[in-house]
Amino acid sequence: MFAIALTDDAELRPLQPWHADEFLANLDRCREHIAPWVGASFVATDAESARRVLQAYADRWARDDGGIWGIWQRGTLVGGVLLVSLSTARGVCEAGCWLEAEAQGQGLVTRAARIVVDWAVRERGIHRVEWVTRAGNERSIAVARRLGMRRDGVLRDAAPVPEGRADMEVWSVLAPEWTA
């Protein structure tokens, strides 16, 4: 399978159901760190649920409506990027990410997301790439900004969270802006 170098010691490659044990180990290392920012359906708690999450993305890939890629640093899965959704009919997709705290500050997510967004725009003909993040997730918002996205607005109380409901920020970049 392909691997794309992100840095001298990190690469981006597809994250498949057979990576469930690595994915679970990655989530176990970053569970508390990412819990405030990712949906409960993503955060697997055992090998079977990890496999289900990855199988759901493999099924999305097969249906041409999403995908997931891992970021490996020095041979260890430390995070990844995903297309939460992809609709070539509508010309819209939603990208997202997760990353262990120890791997932050190296530009790994931005580089990986740039590759996935570029592929969606140039290869799949996507017109609008969205980045939806919980308000206050400054690291995720910084990635959106580095990708050249603009803040479209805030969806008030849009997401259920353990403490009630949370506002979600919507960021986007359009194909003509991306390719300019």
TrEMBL record:
<protein>
    <submittedName>
        <fullName>Protein N-acetyltransferase, RimJ/RimL family</fullName>
    </submittedName>
</protein>
<dbReference type="GO" id="GO:0008999">
    <property type="term" value="F:protein-N-terminal-alanine acetyltransferase activity"/>
</dbReference>
<dbReference type="InterPro" id="IPR051908">
    <property type="entry name" value="Ribosomal_N-acetyltransferase"/>
</dbReference>
<dbReference type="GO" id="GO:1990189">
    <property type="term" value="F:protein N-terminal-serine acetyltransferase activity"/>
</dbReference>
<dbReference type="InterPro" id="IPR000182">
    <property type="entry name" value="GNAT_dom"/>
</dbReference>
<dbReference type="InterPro" id="IPR016181">
    <property type="entry name" value="Acyl_CoA_acyltransferase"/>
</dbReference>
<dbReference type="GO" id="GO:0005737">
    <property type="term" value="C:cytoplasm"/>
</dbReference>
<feature type="domain" description="N-acetyltransferase">
    <location>
        <begin position="10"/>
        <end position="176"/>
    </location>
</feature>
<keyword id="KW-0808">Transferase</keyword>
<dbReference type="Pfam" id="PF13302">
    <property type="entry name" value="Acetyltransf_3"/>
</dbReference>
